[in-house]
Amino acid sequence: MTRLADYFVVVGYDLDKRGGSEGQGRILQRFPEKDWEDNPFPQGIELFCQPSGWQLVPERLPASFFVAVLTDINSDRHYCACFTFWETVENPQLPKEEPSEADEDETPELLLPAQLYAPKSLVLVSRLDHTEVFRNCLGLIYTVHVDSLNVPLETVIGNLLTCVIPIAGGSQRTITLGAGDRQVIQTPINDSLPVSGCSVAQLFRQLGIVNVLYLFCAALTEHKILFLSKSYQRLTDACRALLAIMFPLKYSFTYVPILPGKLLEVLSTPTPFIIGVNSFFRSETQELLDVIIADLDGGTVTIPECVHISLLPEPLLQHTQTALSMVLDPELEVADQAFPPSSTQPSALKIQDKEIRAVFLWLFAQLFQGYRWCLHIIRIHPEPVIRFHKAAFLGQRALSEDDFLMKVLDGMAFAGFVSERGPPYRPTDLFDDLIANEVERVRQEQGDPHKVMDHIKELAEQLFKNENPYPAVAMHKVQRPSDSPLSRPHASQTSFPHMDEVTVQLFVDHAAAKLKTAPPVVKSELKEMVPSGPPLADIVDKNGSVLANSARRLEVVRNCINYIFDNKMLEAKKLMPAVLRALKGRAARVCLTQELNQHVLQNRAVLDDQQFDYIVRMMNCTLQDCSHMDEHGIAAALLPLVTAFCRKLGGGITQFAYSCVQEHMVWTNMQFWEAMFYSDVQNHIRALYLETEDTPSPDEEGTSGPEQVSALELASEQTRLWPTLTKESQQERVQKEESTVFSQAIHYANRMSYLLLPLDTSKNRLLRTTGLAEVESVSNSYVTNSIAGSMAESYDTESGFEDAESSDVANSVVRFINRFVDKVCNESGVTNEHLKALHTMIPDIVQMHIETLDAVHRESKRLPPIQKPKLLRPTLLAGEEFVMDGMRVHLLSDGREEATGVMGGPPLLPAEGAVFLTTYRIIFKGTPNDPLVGEQVVTRSFPIASLTKEKKISVSLPMDQFIQEGLQLRSCTFQLMKIAFDEEVASDLAEVFRKHMHKLRYPQHVQGTFAFTVGQSAKLVVEHKTKDKNQSLKTLSKNLVKTAKRTIGRQYVTRKKYTPPTWENRSSMQSEMDEDEISVSEELEPSALTLSSTIRSSDRQTMSNVVERACCRDYQRLGLGTLSNSLTRSKNEPFRISTVNRMYTVCRSYPGLLIVPQNIPDSTIQRICRCYRQNRFPVVCWRNSRTKAVLLRSAGLHAKGVVGFFKSPNAPTAGPSQADSTSLEQEKYLQAIISSMPSYSEASGRNTLSGFASTHMSASGKWGSIRGSGRLSAYNPDVGNRLAGKESPQANGGPAEPYFLRQQRAYLYIIGDKSQLKGGKQDSFQQWEVVPIEVFDVRQVKNSFKKLMKACVPSSASSDPNMSFHRCLEESEWMNLLHRVLQVSVLVVELLDSGSSVMVSLEDGWDVTTQVVSLVQLLSDPYYRTFDGFRLLVEKEWLSFGHRFSHRGAQTLAGQSSGFTPVFLQFLDCVHQIHLQFPMEFEFSQYYLKFLAYHYVSNRFRTFLLDSDYERIELGVLYEEKGERRTPQVCKSVWDYIDRLHKKTPIFYNYMFSPEEEEVLKPYSFISNLKVWDFYTEETLSEGPSFDWELVRGRAEGPTEEAAADRPETAAPKSQRRVVWPCYDSLSKVLPDAITKLLQDVQTLEAELGHVSEKWKDTWDKIKATQRTETKLESRHSFSSSLLMSSNLIHQRRSQGMYLQESSVGSSINLALDCEASATSTPAAGRPSTSTLYSQFQSTESENRSFEGILYKKGALLKPWKPRWFVLDKTKHQLRYYDTRQDKECKGVIELAEVESVIPGTPTMGAPKNMEEKAFFDLKTTKRVYNFCAQDSQNAQLWMDSIQSCLSDA
To answer: In angstroms, rounded to a whole number, what is the distance separating the alpha carbons of residues 895 and 79?
Structure first.
C-alpha cells in the first residue's frame, strides 16, 4: 500500500520579486509541512508549475492541467500534477494575501493596466502515475473553492493526503475526498509492466512508424532526444510512451518530460537524455549539434549530421516495420483489393496502444532470446552476483559485427536489465514468460505476418488486462465548476483562501496513527525459478555461417590431429594446408579444440618437437581469425590447452604451448579474461553445490544425473532454501564461495602471466601496445641460426641490462593483472584481506614465471632445427662469387597468377629457401611450401645491375601469423622478388644485405661493374677504393691518348691553351684531355690528315684497330669510300672517310672515322659541328645500293643554327657574320650530299614520282599522327585533308584523281623535331625539305617502362577491373611509343626506297635517332638481318655513335638519379615486332633478341658499358687483344659469347630463314598489329632466366664443363611422362620444336655409333642443299613448302609507295600500302599506277596461289592494255586474273592445259610506256595469243619460268 499523494502545494505569483523582466513563483502553502521520512519534498516545484515562466496577463485564461516528472537523487520519479488557474491582481503594491509583508518600497510600474491576472497552481506530488485521478482531485478542490461548496477545503485536502491505495495486484479501490465525489482507482496486476494508457498509440499518430523507430533505437543506443510541442501534457505522454516501448529495458539517464525555460542549459549536458520542451523555446534548441529533435506537432524527427543512429539488425527491422504497419494501418493490405472487406478499421486507441507495445515486446523477445544461457552466476550467497557474457551471446547469435546490439549490450539499460532479471529466483512477468516459452513459436511464425499478428494480439490482450483488470468500472462522480467562472464577478474577487495547516496536519497524523495500529499488509510476492528458455545453439544454426561441406572439413581436421598424435608426420604435413584453410570456419575451430582436449591426460600432454610445432601452428591459425572479443569462445576453449601441451627441452625444462601463441590481440583484452574467469568460477561454484547434494555419486563429473542441472537452476534452488538455513550454515556457505572465487583469482593471475609475458623477456614488449610488435618465433625450434643466437647473447651479456629491460615488461604485466584482479574481486565480493594477499602475490608470480621463461628461452635456442628445408646453393658462373651467403627467406607470390595455383595445379609460391647475393646476381633458390610440389626446386634470379626499385614491405605469411619484414625487389629484366626474411635472420643482417645490394647496383665507377671485376675477389667489390683502382686501370688509356697526340705531328703541337669546341661536360673532359698541356690546334690542313702520312709504325696497330672497329668493312660493303694510302683519292667517289674526329676532338661521342661528302674539307666540318647539339653534325651511315640515296644521322640543331639554316640562300645579308657563314657552310654541306645522288645529276623526268594513295590514313593522315603528340591531332587541317587524299580539283577541271598526283620530290628530307623547327621558312628552290615530327622524350620512355613493368609483373594481385593486365598495358603507352618509332622508320624506308636521301636529326642524336636509323637499315638492307650484320649494326649505330648505355642504364652511382631508361630495349622490341611480321627474313631467332635484351642490362659483358668509343678507348676496353684474357671462360664481349654458343647449339638460329633478294621490309606499325613481347611476361621457375647458358641445369655441353661437374644429381627415377608447368619449366627445352629435336637425335645417335659428331650447322646446311636440288621449281631461294609451310603471301605481302604534294606549308609526304607485284621493284614513273587501297588483311581465299602479281594484258581487239592481278595456281592448273588484288570475283581464266608455249614478246601498239623491251612476253593457247607485260625483265622471266614449270610438271 502506498499514499496516493505525498504533498499538496499551493504555488502563487511572487509579487515581491517583480522587478526583473521575468516574474517568479513561490510556494504559498504546502501540506504536510514536515517531510515524510521515506520521501523528502522535491525542490524547485515553483519552476515546473509554469515551465514557460511566471507572467501576469491582461486577460483571464482557462484553467490548465499537466503532469511534470521530477527525478530525485535516488533516481526515483515524482509525478507533479499541476492545476493552474488565474486570479486578479488589482494593485500590485498592496498584496492582499500576506499583509505582513507589505513593507515594499518599490515604485509602481505605471504601464501596467488596472486589471491583471496572476497564475496560481495547485500541485499534487505523488510517486504514482495516475493522471486522470490527479486531474479529478485537483479539479474537485478548485470546484469547491470557486463554487463555494459547503465543504471545508481542509477536509478535502486532508482526505486527499491520507488516501492509501495498493501499488499493484489488480485491485479496484473506490476513494472519496468527502465532497460528495467518488472515484474508482484500478491498479495494474503487475507493476513491473509500464502503464501507458493511449500514449504509445498517440506517439505513433504524431510521428509515424519510421520516426518512432529512429527514436526507439536512439534511446537504446544512448543518444540525446528532445521532444518539442505546444502542449505540456503531450510532452509528458510522448516521453511516457517512449519509455513504455523500451520495456523490458529501463531508461536510466536524465528524464525530464517538461523542462522549464529557466533550465534550458541542461540541454547542453554531455550525457544522454530524454527531455521535453515547449515549442515556445524552439529557437534556443537550434544550435544543439548532437541532439535528435522530435517535433510532436509537426510530426518530424531531425537527426543532426554528426549523429549516427545504429538501427535494428536487418531482418528484424523489416519484420517490426511490417507488424507495426499492420497494427496502425490494417487497410494497407487490402487497399488494392476489388472487394475490400468491410471491417478493417484499426482497433480503438487504447487497444491499439497495447498492440504496438506487444510488437515491441515481440521484438525484444527476438533480440534477447537465449540471454539467460549467457549469464554467469559468480556468487549465490549472500545474494546472487550475476554477469552477462556479451561476446558469447553475440557470437552465438552471429551478430558480433552488429552495431546496434553491441551498443545496447554495452549500455546502462542492459546492465540494469541483467541485475534485475538475472537472479534466477524472483517474481516473473510477461517478458520472462515470452523468452522462456514462446521463442520457438516466434521463430516458426517469423515469415507469416498473419500468424505474427495473432501472436501480437494475444500479447496485447495480456497487456490490456494488466492495466484494466475490471472491465465494468463503477461510475465516477466528480463535481466540476458549475459554469464558466469568468461570468461570475464575485468569485473572481475571492482569491484562493489560506488554509489552516493545523486542521490538515491533524488529518494526516490521525491517519498515520491508524496505520501504525493496523496489522501489516503482507505483500504476496510469488517468487519462482525463472525458466531459461531454449538454449541458443539450436536457434542460430539457421542463420549462422554454417559452411558447406563442413563435415568434410571437420573430417580433415580430425584426421590431421590423429596423424600428428600417431606420429605420421608426412601425412600430417600433406593435410596441413587444407587444415589451415578449414580453420577459417568456426565449426572447424570448435572441432579442433574438442579433438585436442581428448589428447590431454591429467592436464598434461607431452609431445615431441615436430608434433609440438604442428599443434602450435594449428592453434595460432585458429586464434588468428578470432576477433579480440572471442565471440565463439575459441580462445576460451584453447586456454586450458595451451597450458597442457608441452615438450621437453634439455636440462629437464618443459616448454608449454602458451609461449608460442602469445601473438594474438585476444590475450590483451580485459573483457575476455573477465568472461573466462566468471565462467570458471561459475563451474566451480556449481560443483561446490552439486557435491553437497549428491555426495553418494563418487564418479567423475560427467555422469548423466547432475550434469543436466544448470548453474542458474542450482542457484535458484539455493536461493529458495537460503531463508531456511541456520546462521552458521549460511556463514559457511558464504565463506566457501568466497574462497572458491579467491582461488580462481590466483589461478588466473598465473594464467595471465603465462600469456602476457613474452618468451624472451629481454625483448621489451610492453604488453604489445602496438598490437603486433616484432615477433619472437612461432615455436622456438625456428630460432636456429647461430647468428641470431649470438646476437641475442651479445645483448644479454651486458650486466644489469637484462634486468632493467625485463622489469618493464614485468611491471606492465603486473599492472594489467592487478587491474583485472581488482575488478573481478570487487564484483564478486572477495574480502579485503584476500584482495591484499593477491596484490602481494602477483609480482612474485610474474617474477617466478620470468625466471622459468628465461630457462626455456635459453634451451629453446639450443634446439636442433626441425623440418626446415635444406638451403640449396645455386650454381655460379665462372668468376662470379658470393658477397653474402644464403639468408633464409620466403619467396611470396606477387600479382602474377601463374605460379600461385590460380590457374590450376598446386601453388609453387610461396616457397621457402634462401636468397643469395653474388657479384653478379641476386638469386633465390628454394622449394615450394605446398607439400604436393615440395620436391620441385624454385629458382628466381636477376642480375644485380638490373635492379630498378627496392622497397621494404611487411608481410604476413599464410602459414604463421607473423608480420615479417621483407623486401620487394624489382628488376628491369621483368622479374620481381617479394621476399620475407625468416625469423632466424636478424634484422640488421637484412639491412647489411640491402647495403651490399646498393653498393653492387651502383658502383662508384663503371669499372666496379661485374664485367670488369669478374674473377677478382668479392672482397674487392665490397671495400671498393675508387682512387687506386682507377689509376691502375687508366695507364693504358693515358698512353693511348698520348701516343695518338704524338702521331698528329710535332709541327702542329703548341704550348698554348685553346678553346675547345663546345660540348656539355667541358670541364671534366678538358681536365682529362689536357693533363700535360698539350693541345691540338685547330688549323690543321686537311691534306695532313691522311692516315698513312701521320701514323708512326708503332701506332699502326692501334689505328688498324680503329679501322676495324669503325665498321669500315661496312662502309666498304656499301661503297661509301675506302681508306687508300695514296694522298690522291679517286675523286669520282662522292663520299670519303674523314679522320677529322680520330682524336675525338670534333665530337666526343662520334667514332673516330666518319663518312662525309668528298668535297667538304675537314675545316668546314669543324665549323659546322658547332651548330649541332653535342657537336653531332650530319654524317652518312648507310647508302641504298639501288637508288644510291643515303641515310644521314645527326643531333638536332642548336637554336642559333636554326635561324641561319632556314634563311633563304639568296636573301641579302648585312655582312658575313659568324652565323651566316656557318649557315652557308651548312647549306654547302647539304648541297654536297644532294649532289652525290645520281638521281640529282640526271634530273630528267625522274623527279616526278607517281604517288600512291594512303591507306593508313584517317582524315588527319599518317603525317598528322606522327606530328601530333596525340594520336589524332592533325598537323594542319588543310594539309591533313590533302594528305588523306581528299578531292583536290585538277587543273583541267576533270574529276579529281588523288591517286595520280605528281609532285616535285625533294632530294633530301630532314626529319627534325617539331618543337625545334618552329618558324622556319621554306624556299621553293631548295632541294631539301624539313619534315617536322613530334618525338617523345626520354622521360616518357622511362615512365612508360615503369608502368609496363608494373603491368607485366604486378607486385600484388588486384581484383580491381581497372587494374587488369590489358588496361595497365594500355595506360603504360609502351605500345604507343613502339608504334611511333616504327612509323617514323617505315616512313624513312619509303623515302630512301623512292630515291630521296634522308637525314634524321632528332634530340641529341643518340636515342630516338639511333633507334630510327638502325631500324631503317634493318628494314632496308637484308645484310643487317643476319648474325654478322645485326652485330655490325649494333656496334656501328649504337656503340660507335655513342648511345649512352651507362647513363641510360643508370649503371653507376652517378646515374642513379637519372633512373633507368630502356632506349635499346625499345629498339629490340621493335625488331621483335618486325621479326613477328616477317619470320623468314631474319637469320637469328626471337631468343637472340631476348638474350641481348637481358644482357644489355646484366653487366655480364663489357659490350654495353660506357657511353662512347672515346670512353672505351680511355678505359682501354675497346681493343683488347685476344691473348689478354686472364681466364678462358670469361667472355668480355657478348658477341664472342654468342658466336661460341651458336657453334655449339642452334638456340639463336631461325630455321625459317629464307630471305628474299634485296627485300625491303615495310611492317605494319598500328598498335593493333603489335604484340606484347613474351620476354616481358614469361618466366622459368625451374632454373631461373635461361640467358646465362652455363647455369641452365642439365646442360653439360655449356661453355664450362667444370661448373657442371660438381653439381649433385637431383633427378628422380625417370618416367616417360611429365607434367609441364608453363611458368615452371622452360617450354622450349621440354617441348623443343621438331628441327631442334631431330638435330639432337642425330647428335645422340652419332655419339652412340661413336662417330665424331659434326657441328649442327654443317648438318643443317647439308640438308638444305639436298632439299634445294630435289625441288625442281623454286620461285625464290628458300625451302620448298614441304619443309617449311611458307607461302608467298608472307613475302609479297605489300610494298608501300608514296607521293609528295606541294603545299603552302611545304610539301607533305604520303605513304600508302599497295599491291605492286614485287616488293623490290619501284614502278616506273611514266605509266598509270594501279595501286589500290590494300586492306590490312590477307585475302581469305582458300585456293592455292603458287605465284601472283600484276601483269599488263592486252585486251581483245581494239581494247587497251590494262593492269590485272594474275594468279598462277598449280593445283587447279590455271592462270586466273582479277581486277585488283582484293577482288574476290575472278575476271577470267586461262586453262594451262590449253597453253602451247610461252615466248618473249615485243611491245605492240598502245603498250605501257617506259617499259624495257624484255618485260613483254606472249602466251599462246589453242584459241588465241595473249600479250603480257611485266614490270621489268626480271619479273617477266620469273613469270615465264613459273608457267613453263607448271606446263612441264603437267
So the answer is: 70
Contact 617, 961 (CB under 8 A): no
Q: How confident is the model at residue 1325 (pLDDT cuts 50, 70, 90)?
A: low
The one-letter amino acid at 969: L
Task: Using alpha carbons, select from 1444, 1682, 1686, 1486 the residue that is nearest to residue 1578.
Answer: 1486
E strands, 810-932, where?
882-892, 911-918, 921-928
Per-residue model confidence as pLDDT tens digits over 1742-1755: 456 677 888 888 77
d(CA 1715, CA 238): 92
953 or 625: whose pLDDT is higher? 953
Strands 1308-1313 and 1397-1401: what pairing? parallel
Give the model's confidence band at 1199: pLDDT under 50 very low, under 70 low, under 90 confident, else very high: low
Cα atoms in the Cβ-side hemisphere of radius 13 Å centred on 218: 26
Distances (CA, A) of 437 to 361, 366, 1114, 1477: 14, 12, 102, 82
Distances (CA, A) of 322 to 212, 438, 1634: 14, 20, 75
Q: Give the C-alpha distances (Å, rounded to integers) separating 309 from 225, 302, 398.
A: 12, 12, 21
Q: Give the list of residues 6+ apart from residue 1430 with CB closer than 8 angstroms, or none.
A: 1418, 1424, 1484
Instruction: Give the burial class of 1473: count Cβ atoms within 10 A of its Cβ; 0-12 exposed, 13-18 middle, 19 or more buried.
Output: buried
Question: What radius of gyration, in Å, describes the C-alpha atoms of the chain?
Answer: 52
Q: Which of 241, 223, 459 is nearest to 363 (CA)?
A: 459
User: Please, is 1708 exposed, middle or buried when counting C-beta atoms within 10 Å of its C-beta (0-12, 13-18, 19+)?
Assistant: buried
- Regarding beta strands 1825-1829 and 1747-1754, do their DSSP bridges make them parallel or antiparallel, or are they unpaired? antiparallel
C-alpha distances in Å from residue 1727, one per residue of 1477, 1555, 1831: 31, 30, 10
pLDDT, one tens digit per residue, over 870-882 is 788 888 888 888 8
Q: What is the distance in angstroms between the CA of the first residue and the CA of the last residue of the chain?
A: 131
The dihedral through the CA atoms of 485, 487, 488, 492 has a sign that is positive
> What separation in angstroms does the CA of 1369 have from each of 143, 785, 1474?
93, 43, 20
Nearest to 936 by CA among 886, 869, 865: 869
pLDDT digits (tens, 9 = 90+) for 247-296: 889 898 889 999 998 888 888 889 999 999 999 888 888 888 889 999 99
- The CA distance from 534 to 1116, in Å, is 102
Task: Count the helix, strand and coil residues of the chain and give each as a percent rounded to the nearest 5.
Answer: 45, 15, 40
Which residues does residue 1709 pair with via DSSP β-bridges, in sequence order? 1700
Question: Three-state DSSP class for 1839?
Answer: helix
What separation in angstroms does the CA of 448 have from each of 98, 355, 436, 441, 452?
70, 17, 22, 11, 6
* CA neighbours closer than 13 Å in the CB half-sphere of residue 571: 13
Q: Phi-psi category of 968—alpha, beta or left, where left has phi over 0 and alpha has psi -120 to 50?
A: beta
Number of Cα atoms under 13 Å in the Cβ half of residue 1233:
29
Closest to 761 (Cα-Cα) out of 838, 854, 833:
854
How remote is the C-alpha of 783 from its chain's centroid? 33
C-alpha cell at 1846: 607448271
Confidence band for 1578, pLDDT divided at 50, 70 and 90: confident
DSSP sequence for 726-782: -HHHHHHHHHHHHHHHHHHHHHHHHHHHHHHS-SSTTS--GGGTTSS-S---SSGGG
Strand 975-981 relative to strand 882-892: parallel, antiparallel, unpaired?
A: antiparallel
- Least confident segment among 326-330, 804-808, 1490-1494, 1712-1716: 1712-1716
Distant-in-sequence contacts of 1431-1435, Cβ < 8 A, 24+ apart: 1431/1535, 1431/1538, 1432/1111, 1432/1113, 1432/1114, 1434/1492, 1435/1109, 1435/1111, 1435/1535
What pLDDT score does 1426 carry? 93
CB 616, CB 655: distance < 8 Å:
no
Separation between Cα atoms, residue 821 and residue 1188, nearest integer Å: 100
**Taking Cα atoms as reference points, which of 846, 824, 847 lies closest to residue 835?**
824
The CA distance from 1121 to 1110, in Å, is 13
